[in-house]
Amino acid sequence: MADEEQSPDRLWVRVEGDAACVRVEGRGSFRVSGALKEFALASLESGARRLALDFRACVGMDSTFMGVLAGLAFRFRKLPGGRVLAFNLSARTRQLLATLGLDRIVETRMAADDAPAPAPAAGSETVIEAPAPRELDRERLGRDMIEAHEDLLRVSADNRARFKDVIEYLREDLRKPSGRPAP
Which of 79, 111, 134, 158 is deepest in the core (most CB within 10 A)? Predict the structure, then answer.
């Protein structure tokens, strides 16, 4: 846990014109995926047509985070001019997206391909820290995780074999009494 305290998972978010901007710091995980979804959907409702994610400080992603990203890409791409861009990717984070087929629905740019993103005006970013597992709403997290993994099935037929059992486990877990802490 000491490493987690030194390098917490967090999102830095801001809106610039019609772009919802997110900087992923630490791991893109189930712990911050709900916050990503809430921010992006609120931005979409407020007129954002682009979702830009900066992965320069991201060390990895789990399937729930990537599933949320897939669901957001489906939503943004339905709109005129709508798109999702993941930039400043390392070879590892780029490969994670490609393995699940997200590179088909999300524009990707390696760190070397892009000039640094413009620095936001002082005070224009908001940080969203990953909550401690005990602070997560178990039922909401379970529903979000199922939806995220179902979105991964929509991305690629190959993902069915990867996540069919995960989705069934999550559904079963959600049916259990909620007397135990979230993951």
Answer: 111
Domain count of the fold of the chain: 1
- Measured distance CA(87)–CA(113) in Å, rounded: 8
Print the domain residue range for 22: 2-130
List, for residues 145-164, the tens digit of each pLDDT value: 999 999 999 999 999 999 99
pTM metric for this prediction: 0.85
62: which 2 tokens?
A: 């789990």
Please count the CA atoms within 13 angstroms of the CA of 140 that sit on its side-chain side.
Answer: 11
Q: How confident is the model at residue 139 (pLDDT cuts 50, 70, 90)?
A: confident
Residue 70: give its domain's CATH number.
Answer: 3.30.750.24
What does the alpha-carbon distance between residue 177 and residue 165 come to, in Å, rounded to a whole number? Answer: 20
> H or E stretch including 85?
strand 83-89
**Do the domain assignments include residue 170?**
no
